[in-house]
Amino acid sequence: MTNQRVVGIETEYGIAIDPDSEVYTQPDFRQSPESLSVVAAQAVRSWQASLRTDGQAIGWDWEGEDPLQDLRGTRLDRASADPTMLTDDPQRFAPASPGVETAAEDTFSVQELVGQSSPMLTNVVLTNGGRFYVDHAHPEYSTPEVLTARDAVVWDVAGEYVARRAMSVASSYGSPIVLYKNNTDSKGWSYGSHENYLLARDVPFELLRDCLVPFLVTRPVICGAGRVGIGKNSETCGFQMSQRADFVGDLVGLQTAFNRPIVNTRDESHASSKWRRLHVINGDANRFPGSILAKVAASRAWLAAAEVAWRVSHKAPPVEGLFLECDPVAAGWQVSHDIDFQTTLQCADGIERSALEWQWAAANTVADFLHSQDRDVLLADALADALTWVDTVRMLREDPVAAAQRVEWVAKRTIFQALSRRIPGGWSSDKLAALDIQWADLRPGLSPVDKLRAKGHVEEVAPATDINLAATQPPAGTRAKVRGEAVAHRKDLVAASWTALVVRVGRDRLQRISLRDPFSNQALTS
């Protein structure tokens, strides 16, 4: 089944103390991002504990974590790895960037909420089958595994509900934190929104790399979150499509927190050896559900084409003419900065295309290719994903009003550009920079996104009732259902991970139950 594809999204949230709170004005108050992130994670842990009859939150099982295995068939020696890559240590947080020491001792007491702050004690497995934890000095939410682009939207947006619960619980304990769903503070720091796609391991890495590079370089056109400021530190005034693009500086690599690559090669499949998990790290965290849908659907369709082509003919899909003949890293910056599609990219077929025209050609080529294949090697979802992709690009080319309801950067640009013409200083105005941060504010009613949604100007992929339910309930069809239901109901559960449940079988004995099959709803004894 080519497009029976497990998908998951991880979002690192920006975090700060509520600037309107009394705590914010205290001169001796310490507010390192790591300390605040610990508060957020412990708040979620406290909330999740309240959902169980025994009042005990379920922690993470670290067995099998291996962030140093590379898709290219090698493994980075631990002694040679940058500390930012060591995310598998249950006793110590990985730093946010090279040269930045962790500050586990710089936590502050919020009554009983924050007692200890190691990764082991700030990781919590959620009743919806997902995970909330501290990663690189940021609170992070990982969705459970889902099977459709729509469900990816539902459980990703459900993370915003989880974030609001974190803020509410933390505030009740005297720590008024604010979480932001964005990717940069525009002062040189970037934090990720990573996508994960399960695909067959027999597809050669080289083929995946060659196909992925031009696709990911141009993808912000259909799903960028938009950003005020150009350059890592917003050195140039203006607006760009992507919050993440300026922080991508390499073609291929294992690293995720420095010199970030277009194609990340971390090889933790969290499944059996026949599967590979593609870890995409250069996307934006989106507030618009339609942008999440476009992002995931287009990526699934692109990967489906690669898998089908390899299975049928052992070669790439008919997109080689769209491979780039220019520097892909520089092209990624150019695409994000070129909000009017005035510049072009040299392609292997000799045609120069704007990023929008590249996406149009790619979406239609993939849709036609998938439509031509036998249905016995192709699930209907692949075609539906391709049509979502085609429809999104068509909106951008022909219907700007509809595009502004689905594609986040288009809506943000429309609003901010109008403001820039009225506010003194235009794009250099501090007010616009502050509004850019406010756009990502997850406090109810404070973001311009909430106001747009109230007016019906944001495309809704799923009803609010589905999203609210997804904050505490797992999706059907994957092992997330087993995990989430175990977290909610099994009294013998001690810990869990993507691939296992750890249960108590006696006073001093534990048993690990396998969840290696991502598609199984049945837990298997190891």
Structural key phrases:
alpha+beta, six-stranded antiparallel sheet, about 35% helix, globular, about 525 residues, 15 helices, single chain, five-stranded mixed sheet, 3 domains
Strand content: 15-25%
Q: The biggest beta sheet, please?
A: 6 strands, antiparallel
Spatial arrangement of strands, main beta sheet: 4-5-6-1-8-13
Total number of beta strands: 19
When the domains are counted, the total is: 3
- Point out poorly predicted stretches: 99-117
- Structural class by sheet pairing and helices: alpha+beta
**Mean pLDDT across all amino acids:** 89
Helix tally?
15
Helix content: 25-40%
Rounded Rg? 22 Å
Q: Tell me, what's the shape? A: globular
Distance between the termini: 26 Å
GO molecular function: ATP binding; hydrolase activity, acting on carbon-nitrogen (but not peptide) bonds, in linear amides; peptidase activity
Pfam families: Pup_ligase (PF03136)
Protein name: Putative proteasome accessory factor PafA2
Organism: Mobiluncus curtisii ATCC 51333
